[in-house]
Amino acid sequence: MALKDRLDDDRSSADRTSPNTVGQWRARLLDEINLEELAALNPAQRRARLEKVTGVLIAREGPVLGAGERANLIRRVVDEALGLGVLEPLLADPTVTEIMVNGPDAVFVERAGRVQRLENGFASEDQLYQTIDRIVAQVNRRVDESSPMVDARLPTGERVNVIIPPLSLVGPVLTIRRFPRAYTIEELTALGSMDQATGMLLASFVRARLNVVISGGTGTGKTTMLNALSAFVPDWERIVTIEDSAELQLKQEHVIPLESRPPNIEGKGQITIRDLVRNALRMRPDRIIVGEVRGGETLDMLQAMNTGHDGSLVTVHANSTEDTIYRLQTLASMSDVKLPFEAVKDQINSAVDVVVQLGRGPDGSRRITEVAVVVSRNRETVALRRVLHFASEPIGPDRVVRGAFVAHPVPARIATRLFHAGESVPPAFGVGDDPDELREIS
After folding, report:
1. Total Cβ atoms within 10 A of residue 237
2. Which residue from 66, 166, 387, 436 lies 20 to 30 Å from 104 (Cα-Cα)?
3. How far apart are CA 278 and CA 281, in angstroms?
4. Tens-place pLDDT, residues 215-253
5. 185-441 CATH pick, 2.60.40.10, 3.40.50.2000, 3.40.47.10, 3.40.50.300
6. What is the predicted pLDDT for the residue at 15?
7. Which stretches are tagged as biased composition: Basic and acidic residues (predicted)?
8. Res 251: pLDDT
9. Ramachandran sector of residue 383 (left: φ over 0; alpha: ψ -120 to 50; beta: rest)
10. How far is residue 411's CA from residue 375's CA, in Å, rounded to a whole number?
């Protein structure tokens, strides 16, 4: 039974009885159209047909409305009948990067890094539940009282999270993370996410098959950076991507995208990121790209980096480059393979070459805040050497972040690897070992 069918009838009684509501016109529209005829049309023709029929209904039976009000009502009715209702215009707005629904009456969006509340919400809790049910049904997932949390994605790629009562105390909560088109390094440079020399250095790291970890907090642009760096993987290499929800948009021809699967209604059939990482090793990949590690699969990823899959890319949640190392140690220790902590550190020493830290400023801007390379080996204490950091100026009354990217010498061992791969170190960095930039991590 669909989630909306399990609701109490009185939740939507007001919407059914009050005149000239979106729910009323949607019901009249569904009574008027031929569903079999509609199913034969493509999406654009279907929408045009529904808009025409709705316009006729409102002109014949509805109140006298101005042209703008009439067009708005027609759009809302068709969105409710065909799409995701209130969410449709937000999903069509390219400036919206996040949609947050905290119950039917509280809808927030993020634009340019700033969160703002919208005036319009859902007509009722029932309408919000219907929207949620449509979203999760598209990817064969479910959300109900026995399974009140779900991660899903829209057909257009947006990541969706749903949590409902009794876990949520404000009613159904729906969060949609929108992913912009895949940006290039040049475009990110133009946006101020890095300078040109840093973009050249990161491109050299990827082409030279260094293992790169992209770290940062939520919403700092890790997936966007991962997409941008993946563009420098040669077209002839076989790439396996592994994600919870497919978000990467790689342009190469030889890409095998894998996506995890939650348990079914009987609690069986779950396929985890760790299962996919293990399976990817049997698929003859040249590189493995993991959307995010957050558990025991971290150990499998480190071992893959240590067993001939150089040039792998992965993201992880962390607040600094040092925290990234600590977090990798913690996540790897969550594996069912109980390795001594020192052995995990040895794995990190051998596997990770570069850590790219991202941050988001008070003004919503996203940029690289630090790039560090691992200079320790084998059983040495893990040590990072910073090759770039963003020196921020004091925040002024306008809350705009200003500053400069400061380059430091690239360690000789890393520079040698670049040279052997036919790459070079940008002149802004140079080559050398700066002892002041060395940080050992116990």
Report:
1. 14
2. 66
3. 6
4. 999 888 898 999 999 999 999 999 999 988 777 888 888
5. 3.40.50.300
6. 41
7. 1-14
8. 85
9. beta
10. 8
| pLDDT for residue 79 | 64
Angle at 215 (CA atoms; ends 415, 189), nearest 5 degrees: 65
- Report whether 391 contacts 403 (CB < 8 A): yes
Consecutive H or E run containing 89:
helix 87-91
Q: Strand pairing partners for 373? A: 354, 385
Instruction: Please give the backbone phi and psi of residue 134, each rounded to the nearest 5 degrees, phi first.
Output: -65, -40
Cβ atoms within 10 Å of 163's Cβ, excluding its own: 14
Residue range 3-177 forms a domain whose CATH class is alpha beta
Residue 173 CA to residue 169 CA, distance in Å, equals 9
Q: Which two tokens stand for residue 75?
A: 């759009």
Predicted pLDDT at 367: 94
- pLDDT tens digits along 98-114: 999 999 889 999 887 78
Q: What is the pLDDT of residue 10?
A: 36
Q: Per-residue b/e over 114-142, b at no fewer than 16 CB within 10 Å?
A: eeeeeeebbbbbbbbbbbbbbbbeebebb
3-class secondary structure, 205: helix
Quote the mean pLDDT of the chain: 82
Give the three-state DSSP class for 438: strand
Long-range own/partner contacts, residues 114-120 (CB < 8 A, 24 or more apart): 114/364, 120/86
Give me the residue spans of the domains in the chain: 3-177, 185-441
